[in-house]
Amino acid sequence: MDTLRVSICYTNGIGKNEDGKKAFELFMKSAIGGYSKGQCVVGFYYSNGIGTQQDYEKAMVFKIGQKWGCDGA
After folding, report:
1. Which of 57, 18, 14, 10 is nearest to 38 (CA)?
2. Tens-digit pLDDT profile for residues 13-52
């Protein structure tokens, strides 16, 4: 869960410089760890090309896998 919180800091520039790539890496780490919010955000980042190359297929994998937990992402 701490990884998820730090990734939000990188996303919003809270106590750290905004860094989409670093935020993506940390959200991915939380997604791999099984956190549904991290999985949703990774899908969002893939679909919008934030911190990574835009990839709609990968976005759908993360979003479909967590379709019930992605309401806010």
Report:
1. 10
2. 888 888 889 999 999 998 888 888 888 889 999 999 999 9
- Measured between alpha carbons, how far is 32 from 13 in angstroms, rounded to an integer? 23
DSSP-assigned states of every residue in 37-70: HHHHHHHHHHHHTSSS---HHHHHHHHHHTTTT-
**Alpha carbons 10 and 26: distance in angstroms, whole number:** 9
- Domains of the chain in sequence order: 2-65 (1.25.40.10)
Half-sphere exposure of 32 (CA within 13 A, CB side): 7
Other CB atoms within 10 A of residue 12 CB: 11
